[in-house]
Amino acid sequence: ETAAGDLELIYEYFVYVGSVSANRRYVERSQVSERLVGKMSMTDPIADMLTRIRNAGQAGHRRVDIPPSKIKIEIARILEENNFILGYKVLDDGAHGRLRVYMKYTPDDRPVIRVLERVSKPGLRKYVDYASAPKVRVGMGISILSTSMGLITDRDARRLHVGGEVIAKVY
C-alpha cells in the first residue's frame, strides 16, 4: 500500500482513541494497530533479533521465530558454532520466510545465553582492529564482528589479523 494508506490507518487509530467508550476503544484500537504492524520500518533489525532471543530465554521458550536476513542467519550460525543455541532453521512460509532459533538451556533450566548485547548501533558504530577485538568474560564469551571476511568471532579475528565492526557480545 501507499504512504497515504499508512496515514489513513494512523488517522483511523487516533479517531478511534478519542471517539468511543473505553471498552470498545481498546478493541478497535488493537485492531487498527494490528494493521499497522509490518508497515512501520525497523531501524535496527539486528537489535530486534537479539532482543527476541534474549526474551525467549528469559521466558523459557524452546524456540523463537525471527524475520530472516543474511546477517541474522550468520549470527545464528555463530551462536550455534559456539554452543549458545541448539540450532536454527530457515523456514519458507510462502512470504518472506522465518528464521527459527532453538534455544539452549542448562540442566537446571536456565538459558545458556546470559547476556546478549548489541554493541555497534546505527547511531554509534564501533570499529576495532584485530589486536583490540574485545575479549568477553576473559574468553568465556564471544564478540561477533562484521569484517571483510564476513561475520566472525573475536578469536577468529585475532587469528586471521582482521578487524571490523563489533556487532554484539554474548556470554
Q: How many helices does DSSP assign? A: 5
Low-confidence stretches at least 5 residues in length (pLDDT < 50)? 15-34
The SSE order reads HHHEHEEEEEEHE
Could you tell me the number of beta strands?
Answer: 8
Query: What is the overall shape?
Result: globular
Roughly how many Å is the radius of gyration?
20 Å
Structural class: alpha+beta
Query: pLDDT average, as an integer?
Result: 86
Give a quick account of the main beta sheet: strands, pairing sense, barrel closure: 5 strands, antiparallel
Please give the alpha-carbon distance between the first and last residues. Answer: 42 Å
Beta percentage is 15-25%
- Range of helix content: 25-40%
Top keywords for this entry?
alpha+beta, globular, 171 residues, three-stranded antiparallel β-sheet, 39% helix, five-stranded antiparallel β-sheet, 5 helices
Explain how this protein is built:
The chain is of the alpha+beta class and 171 residues long. It is 39% helix and 23% strand. It contains five helices and eight strands, in the order H-H-H-E-H-E-E-E-E-E-E-H-E. The protein has helices at residues 3-19, 22-36, 45-59, 70-81, 154-160; strands at residues 63-66, 85-91, 98-103, 116-118, 127-128, 142-147, 150-153, 164-170. Strands 4, 5, 6, 7 and 8 form a five-stranded antiparallel sheet that branches. Helix 1 runs antiparallel to helix 2. The radius of gyration is 20 Å and the shape is globular. 23% of the residues are buried.
